[in-house]
Amino acid sequence: IELGPRAGDTKEVLADFRRRLAEAIRLPVDRAVALGEMSPDRVPTAVALLVTFTLGVGVLMRSG
């Protein structure tokens, strides 16, 4: 994020990281659906929110 357009190959690495993060977050969310704790139609929003939250906390931690 900090590098912006100068990121070069880093963009691909970061996109892959975000994809893997979303997949990891989706596992417990899918489990919640299987247990009837969450409606399947809420999964995309929940995963997106949790990915954004996780990345945002990382930025806050680095900024002190």
Give structural notes.
This protein is mainly alpha-helical and 64 residues long. It contains 2 helices and no strands. It is elongated, with a radius of gyration of 14 Å. The chain starts with 9 loop residues before the first helix and ends with a helix. The mean pLDDT is 89.
Beta-strand content: under 5%
Distance between the termini: 17 Å
Order of helices and strands: HH
**Rg value:** 14 Å
Query: So what's the overall shape?
Result: elongated
What is the gist of this entry?
This protein is mainly alpha-helical and 64 residues long. It has helices at residues 10-34, 43-63.
In terms of topology, how is this protein built?
Elements (H helix, E strand, L loop, with lengths): L9 H25 L8 H21 L1
Helix pairs in contact: 1-2
Task: List descriptors.
mainly alpha, 2 helices
